[in-house]
Amino acid sequence: MSAKATTAVPTDKPPKKGRKLVWIIVAAVLLGGAGGGWWMWQARAVAKAPAKPVQPAKAPAQYYALDPAFVVNLADADTVRYLQADVQLMTRDPATLSALQQQAPALRNRLLLLFGQQTAQSLAERRGKERLQQQALAEVRAVLKGEGGPDKVEAVYFTSLVTQ
Q: ∠78-133-110 over CA atoms, to 5°?
């Protein structure tokens, strides 16, 4: 009997560690390039986007107090009631502020007439006071416009409003 010596012939190639590393590097470079390309694309798109128009800064608010306080009889038929109101007018326009000072007597007259038409019941709720503010603003603008002056009054504020 003869014993054959078997020698193992390696048929499998040894694993190549370097090939795996090459694929990892290639993948990292591709992903990095894709990310960088996307970032450049977005940066260019933002640069091409139209710029938002810059709003000019608002001028500071200027207030004109109509002193002394208004005191009027309310239009209630059943009893005598009074309204006392401290009023300030707000504008951002220096020319309008000057016009308010010049037209103060006419403004006071129109507001006295307006306030005297109110009833205690209409002024009992917030909605009534806000309506009166809007009416007063319209009266102020009408006086200024009627005199040919600038009418850029933005708001009428009641700094005190008492009904009795």
A: 75
CA quadruple 41, 44, 45, 46: dihedral sign: positive
Q: What is the pLDDT of residue 17?
A: 63
The pLDDT tens digits for 54-107 are: 777 889 999 999 999 999 999 999 999 999 999 999 999 999 999 999 999 999
How far is it, in rounded angstroms, from Cα 136 to Cα 86? 13
Tell me if the pTM is above 0.85.
no
**Do 103 and 147 contact (CB within 8 A), yes or no?**
yes
Q: Which CATH architecture has domain 62-163?
A: 2-Layer Sandwich (3.30)
**Residues in CB range of 89: below 8 A, 6 or more apart:** 63, 64, 66, 100, 107, 140, 153, 155, 156, 157
Mean pLDDT of 4-31: 70
